[in-house]
Amino acid sequence: MDEVLNSQKTALDTRHQKMLIDGKWVDSASGETFEVCSPANLSTIATVPRGRDEDVRSAVSAAERAFPGWSRTAPRQRGRILQQIADKLELHVEEIAKILASESGNALRTQARPEALMVVDVFRYFGGLGSELKGETIPLGENILSYTRREPIGVVGAIIPWNAPTILAALKIAPALCAGNTMVLKTAEDAPLAVLKLAEICSGFLPDGVLNVLTGYGTEAGSALSADPRIRKMSFTGSTATGKVIMREAANRIVPVSLELGGKSPSIVFPDVNEDWAVEGISNAMRFTRQSQSCTAGSRLFLHEDIFDSFLEKLEANVSQLVIGDPLDETSDIGAIINEKQYNKVCGFIEDGLNNTDAKLVFGGMPPTEGLLSEGYFTMPTVFAKKDNKWRLSAEEIFGPVLVAIPWKDEDEVIRMANDSHYGLAAYVWSHDIGRALRTAHAVEAGWVQVNQGLGQAMGHSYGGTKQSGIGREFSLQGMLDSFTQTKNVTVNLMTNRDY
Ligand code: NAI
Ligand code: MG
């Protein structure tokens, strides 16, 4: 027990961190820093460099210098290095998980530890794919050899958010590097520490400059990175609003972008479903145990009118068992919202819901104003019921534990409502009637549909959005090939002089 407490203390100690440029740990050129706080108790847990243009320029220069050597390293050798990183990461899962829980507010047991374990999986998976960077031969005739090569693009700029920072970093670093690119990654200002730890482990195995990791604000380091003319590809995860800014910047230089953006994903429940079993899945799909700070959150619950009331009663009974508390406490299921801005935004949505006379509060409500939970940015799982899909709470991404329940009668009508969103990331369908379930899965506009489950991503699957939820796919070999390689076609005339 003492050991656990001591290691928790280490993860929480105030300390100054540096960023990784060209294999060295450095301060910002200006010497400026900013603080990283725990959203569970508002204490400062570290300071990090406030990177700006000049730091971005040196990081991109380092990545540019490292590119020729890294891109010519045999793909299987690059993969082997990623595998070695995975082995080393595995020894540090607990440390990374605790840093993650402290800075992000995500509960250790339900979120931070599984996230850290998955990071190992990501490096292992992409580390095994070096030999899959293969091209094709094109059958143009016996005397012509035409073949394609999957070549790396160059220096990749990566920008990530704070909600699952190490997994989102790993999903950019591992495939981009496996494919022979080098990278400059900007961490999220609210949760850079676990990613810096990940960078430290990576840098023990990678040549200098292959991976550079910066800390800094979006409008300073982030925009300098996306505007740097030497960046040949931008890979971004975050809000749709910022994704548009990144894409506009990339358009100036015709640079390809991968964008993993927001969502407002529907859960469609048919009346034949086993309710006790489905409530568990709906709660998972809503990601209540990550304070619903997930782009995949199934945040619009379309319940058939025959089961509307009974289902919500069962959902309340299920969700009320989740324990909200200190993210580092093993008994906590739910932690804290990342920062004051997001906390106020979530509270604003709850207030709107409470003030809307057509909406009914099913359970939850405004956060506690006294006791331990009032000392951090803790919110409660909250559900509103409303007859239609047309209000701010069911149109905008809340990124907090506020679920809206909407009744429906007719299959076509529910699909129309589900698709009435500018987002199209994930969807969840609940029915034991296979025809109905798959018809719905095909009709719903989303990059990823789950039938009768509300689980997280797994390596190898195709993950990404349609509509304003983004461009590109992650988590798979195909995603790596599409996002981090470019195709070159070489055509060779094999004819001898005699053949002319
Ligand atoms: P954001 O999209 O502004 O931040 C994500 C990353 O982009 C951070 O690293 C940030 O520093 C960077 N960034 C911000 N402005 C930039 C710019 N002009 N140029 C380059 N980089 C920039 O998201 P934020 O402010 O943290 O959260 C706002 C909302 O975004 C949330 O309420 C949620 O709705 C959505 N969001 C969605 C996420 C997802 O996984 N799809 C993750 C985080 C937020
Ligand atoms: Mg924070």
Give the class from helix and strand content and strand pairing. Answer: alpha/beta
Quick one: overall form? globular
What's the total count of β strands? Answer: 23
Number of DSSP helices?
Answer: 16
Indicate the proportion of strand residues.
15-25%
The CATH architecture assignment of the largest domain turns out to be 3-Layer(aba) Sandwich
The CATH topology of the largest domain is Aldehyde Dehydrogenase, Chain A, domain 1
Bound molecule kinds, no repeats: 1,4-dihydronicotinamide adenine dinucleotide, magnesium ion
Portion of residues within helices = 25-40%
Strand order of the largest sheet: 15-16-17-14-13-19-20
Oligomer: single chain
Q: Could you give me the name of the CATH homologous superfamily of the largest domain?
A: Aldehyde Dehydrogenase, Chain A, domain 1
Task: Please write the CATH class name of the largest domain.
Answer: Alpha Beta
Question: What's a quick, concise take on this entry?
Answer:
This protein is an alpha/beta fold. Helices cover 40% and strands 20% of the residues.
